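[Q] Does anyone have a clean structure-token version of this?
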Amino acid sequence: MAVESLPRGRSLAGRALRSPALHSVVAAVLVGALFLVGTGADPLGAYGSVLSGALGPDGIGSTLTTGTSIIGLAVALAIPMRAGLLNLGGDGQLVLGGIAAAATGLYVPLPAPLAVLAALLAGMLAGAAYAALAAVCQNRFGVPLLVSSLLLGYPAMSFASYLARFPLKEEGSSLPQTRRLPDGVELPAFGSSTVTVGLVLVVLAAAVFMFADARTAAGYEIRMTGLNPRFAAYAGIDRPRLTLRLMGLSGAVAGLVGAIGVLSFPYRFIDGSLTAAGHTWTGLTAALLASAAPLGTALAALFFAALEVGGLAMERATEVPRELTQVLQAVVIVFLAARLRLTWRRARKPAATKAVASTEKPEKPEEPVKSVRTEGDL
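[A] Here you go.
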């Protein structure tokens, strides 16, 4: 009898409802509600203020502005993570992209639109080159990518801080910041909001990542490497070259986010402003939550941006500390890791039982077979 397949929409909905990420978010919301009850606050009122503060008329602009950085960094870190590589140098690539964009916007004698384009490209090139350096350290010197990318971030931030405090510092200012970019050297904003074209750029980056992941041979190689590196190597995939390419792309997107931050308000590079909010680690959390899947990464990043903005509204409305939203992010990852671990153990148990059962079956004695030499044995 032929079995009719379920409609695509229903199958996608079913997979979404069975997703470990969704279960982890729901569990974190319930744990947060218990925390709120323990402090004497109303969970429904607190969560309602989070939603209204993040998605209401007064908060949606802030959510999208914050989401620009978090989505961009989440996509940047998800690109190598899709192949099983972990880039922990996002902060360094971010600030190098920002300082490169600031220097280009200040000193390149071009018309304003071309100066904006040059600043964006300079930020991407700076981030890509520095991320590729971490890949070179692994490929040529054997330094693990996790270590090299993390440690290279500190000299990058120190170098950008030096430039903002001395060579590029605004004269007469007590703050470690560069001069304001010339008039017109900025990303256009949507109306009177703080949301700029930078949001469109990071969404385009996420869309390109999604298309390449699902529709190209390179995307298949990346996913195959992440699922089974040994099989990928057996299939002929050059892992060092793939690492260099993916780290370059990751750094380019992180540098783009830094350039967007400089080309948006306050239109200058301020030492520490790009990394103070911790958006790099929030983006990493989003990529982990979605297992580096392009669409899931972008949605998780937007979810965390809404939590961050809504937490401020919750603190004003209910006097519940906004740090609760950071606790929720951590609980989401803890529940996700625990669920994946349990799923892995359940998957191994039937396989182990089957293996034991196969060993208990009596084997029939086999007649000796004479060995035959073939051409492959010669």
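[Q] Thanks! Anything notable?
[A] The CA atoms of residues 304 and 329 lie 7 Å apart.
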